[in-house]
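CATEGORY: protein folding

GOAL: derive structure tokens
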Amino acid sequence: MIQIYPMNSQREVSFIMMTTKVSKSNWIIAAIIFTLSAELKANNPADPLITALDEPNAEKAVFDDATRTKPIVLKSADDAAKYFSKAELAKLTKAVDFKKRVVLIFAWRGSGQDLMDLSVGESDPERVIFKVKPGRTRDLRPHTVIYSLRSNVMWSAK
């Protein structure tokens, strides 16, 4: 009997195989699994699904156009020029290939303990769901969260 345990919850195909009894059928099943995993890995791009960007720092104009449920979507460096200084725009264009990726900027004011949480759905096409967990303190703090996603990824914010 062959048991397959995924090493992580992402779509990377890496398995630990454990066999309790070695037989010819177990080796055939193992060969099929390795063949399928190689094909899936070949189809899986090296480009990560989503990346959180700590830098660059956006200007205060993001608070006029973005909320925690409706982010600013940047599809080119020209779009980004409105929200970043020249130095910060250079950092962004160095970190993100706008031909393959889009940038989402979430900006809101709320409790200092507010946290942006995301979950990745295992579907085709992939889907990312963003959700803010409200904090319990009554202090008003600005929050800016920037993500880079592959352009073919579906997303929603709640």
